[in-house]
Amino acid sequence: MQPQNEEHKTITELIMQAKREATAETDTEPEPELTSAVDWPVACTVGPGLEGAIACETRVGYVNGKKGWLIYRGYDIFDLCAHSSYEEVSYLLLHGQLPSSSEFEEYSNRLRRYRDIGQTLRLFMSFPIEQLHPMAALRLGTNLMRQKQTYRDLDVDPDHAPIAADEDSIAMETPPLGEKEAIYEFASGAHTRPEKASDDLTGSEDIDSCYHLISGVATLAAAIVRLRRGKFPLEPRQDLSHAANLLYMINGEVPSVLEERIMDINLILHADHGMNASTFATMVVASTLSDIYFSIGAGISALNGPLHGGANEEVIKTLGEIGSPDNVDHWFETAVADKRKIPGFGHRVYKAYDPRARILAPLAERMAASRPELHQLYQTAKKLEQRVVAEYGEQKKIFPNVDFYSGLLYRAMSIPQNFFTPLFAVSRVAGWTARVIEYLEHNRIFRPRAIYTGDLTAQYRSIETR
Ligand code: ACO
What we know:
Blueprint lengths: L5 H20 L6 H4 L25 E4 L4 E4 L2 E2 H7 L2 H10 L5 H15 L2 H7 L9 H11 L2 H7 L11 H4 L15 E3 L2 E3 L15 H22 L13 H10 L5 H13 L7 H11 L4 H12 L7 H12 L5 H10 L17 H16 L4 H22 L5 H11 L7 H21 L26
Antiparallel strand pairs: 1-2, 2-3, 4-5
The structure holds acetyl coenzyme *A.
């Protein structure tokens, strides 16, 4: 998929080498009970937090934690990272198969069109974005992207609509142009209200909204970084790939081939990961036939929790705290004595080496080789990995997870630490939307039970007597 130059070939080879190592270390037999259709209702053992519960069947993706497998629509993550692009992978997740050339062209053109979310950004910038947590800002922006529905909510005759409150709150640096319905200019494009509001408040089945979100959330995220840096958002570049455009919109510079490729791989790696908390949250909201924008907002909210996203921020802080490879042993021994969990290691599902960490580790080495300022950070990380795996690998099945090297790579691309989790969301929109679309084909509203263990016979007493 990618045009091949020397840098691409080197990276492809690094990933294929990682794949060979993974294959040599893991059993290649699938687990039939986890990969075949079930007869509903299904009997399974359920733990607190729905652990072990089977909520649905899916063809989107498969994680096998014992073997260290991650598969999207049948394709191994190593092959996708080596040969594909985020655009192609997001199409694969949504549509179930790799696109033909013409399908790919049409899809990537639509994604490019949806990069431009000027109307949303106008609304967005009327909020104090620089004062919001980046994830809160991303969630807000996703909600504002829901414009078909927002305008419908006004419940007015679109032909006689007054200037809406939404429009009043638009940032004032670009004045309205004095039309009956205000038109605002954003960079080179003029944006007007949609001609007719959607009659359908759900919109969840609308694949176009998925494309809109996959592209638009990236633009929003980059705008958040810029606004927090006291700069205006940049207009997206139509001539760049999704990954290169994202980096361009963040840093204002077209990235190097190495940076573009590494960002692309990071986006592919984070695009889907089984029935995790944010995916489930997204699907729960969608199952009520709420719209896809609200559903993705729920996914962003769930991802914000420290038990889900954000360990890569902690990894960078930890590596900073350790300081140099010479301090690793002492730091590690103190951490063990304090019973401290080491960020970037261990995983709820993977009890083998996380395949995503296997892919990112050699990329971090490659990046560090071209950046002297990263050398010490990388060497410290490498030594910590060796020490943790030697101590805990065999014994406790604790290995590096995806977060261990991703922070280091993001840092090399000038991405601020508190933006690592929003970047995760930018990528995961593909998996979230794909799973929602699939689930809605046979939708059933989620409704687990709780076991009531409270009192059954409490007698009501008036407030004065309590
Ligand atoms: N460092 C040291 N010891 C660890 C670590 C770690 N990172 N992770 C687990 N352990 C130990 C625990 O102390 C426990 O030891 P014990 O049996 O002697 O008490 C044992 O391994 C099992 O630990 P649990 O917490 O039960 O393992 P679980 O699989 O539930 O936890 C989790 C997974 C939460 C990810 C955990 O490994 C952790 O906190 N890691 C650090 C944070 C992190 O990197 N999170 C990112 C995960 S990747 C992602 O979400 C995208």
